[in-house]
User: Which sequence fits this backbone?
């Protein structure tokens, strides 16, 4: 499935009879038009610049509703805070273990992810989440690495 744009997602929600409050629209637009994967707090701060008077509770409630409706995705990484992804297509993520950046990349072919073992088990895959963990290019250029108990600094 190809990523749905803001206007396509808005039309989908309207056709389902979903009430589209100004808050829902501005949050959906932010997530559909960014490549970032912000936390609820980051959404709150970005939206607060344009939408005076919005509360953090409204942001959380809206993110939960949009996730429930399937127009955005919630990504949890075990650090207690979720990140939100406006890309509703099947795709994978590169997750930097140093700075926390999350980058969208195309998924491998279904045949690579849905292996022969999965098919033999008779499992019907409806969706999957593929993530690669490591250090992003920006962090690796300026990071301190421990190699064989020796620290090397790259600048």
Assistant:
């Amino acid at each position: 499935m190809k990523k749905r744009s803001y206007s396509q997602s808005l039309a989908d929600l309207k056709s389902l009879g979903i009430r589209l409050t100004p808050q829902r629209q501005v949050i959906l637009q932010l997530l559909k038009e960014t490549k970032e994967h912000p936390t609820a707090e980051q959404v709150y701060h970005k939206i607060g610049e344009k939408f005076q008077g919005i509360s953090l509770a409204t942001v959380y409630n809206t993110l939960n509703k949009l996730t429930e409706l399937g127009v955005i995705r919630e990504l949890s990484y075990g650090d207690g805070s979720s990140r939100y992804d406006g890309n509703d297509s099947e795709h994978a993520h590169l997750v930097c273990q140093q700075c926390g950046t999350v980058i969208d990349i195309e998924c491998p072919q279904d045949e690579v992810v849905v292996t022969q073992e999965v098919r033999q088990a008779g499992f019907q895959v409806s969706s999957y989440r593929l993530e690669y963990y490591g250090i992003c290019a920006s962090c690796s250029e300026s990071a301190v690495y421990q190699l064989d108990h020796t620290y090397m600094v790259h600048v």
